[in-house]
Amino acid sequence: MPDSRTILPAPKLLNLTSVRAQESAITLCAQTSSSAAQCPTCGKRSARVHSRYMRTLADLPWQGVPVSVHLRVRRFLCEEVACQRAIFAERLPGVAAPYARRTERLEGWFTHVSFALGGEAGSRFFKDLGIMVSGDTLLHPIRSLQLGDHETPRVLSVDDFAFRRGTRYGTILVDLERHTLVDVLADRSANTFAQWLGEHPRVEIVSRDRSGGYAEAARRAAPHAVEDPVCPSSPPVAVISIVWP
Which residue positions in the chain have pLDDT lower than 70? Predict the structure, then answer.
């Protein structure tokens, strides 16, 4: 996650020109410091400025006061004759993604809090910090998460969780040896879990709660696997660590 200990995000790329502080808001005015930019299409650097425009980015709060960055960004003329893009806006890696309205480090906060607290609880937490964000916005990083390919785990933990408590439940699968998330299933039925086990025959040990559905699925689809039922009152058998780039 981008460094949050500096006044400006990516201070090596930006120059702070002024600060406007009010009782309920703080505005940082900045501009890029490099003399040239790289074309995102052909990769050639150009120093020929075409025009300038302003971007307004929400940033990390100061002592509960909302902060915005008014950033002066340039458009450049691409000097590569064969390039299909004649004009391009300079990219801001470490500051903000193209078309984004928030800095990367604020987006990093949103991602961490959404996975730790969820939508509505995260929204209340950010309100205390001076950031107004809806629960649906905080849930976006979770909904857009793409799980990478994983080897079939030897020791598999299976448990249910609530997409919406009392209404819809799913199943979470964790590799207990690598302490990594393996998959998330759309429901907690025996048939769905049995189908997953049938597609991943290398599971040797299934650690589960005392749910009859998971036990039935394990016996049906992975009769060779050793079942290790975990009593709900016992300490957790694993801690899931999710590290975000």
Answer: 1-3, 147-149, 228-245
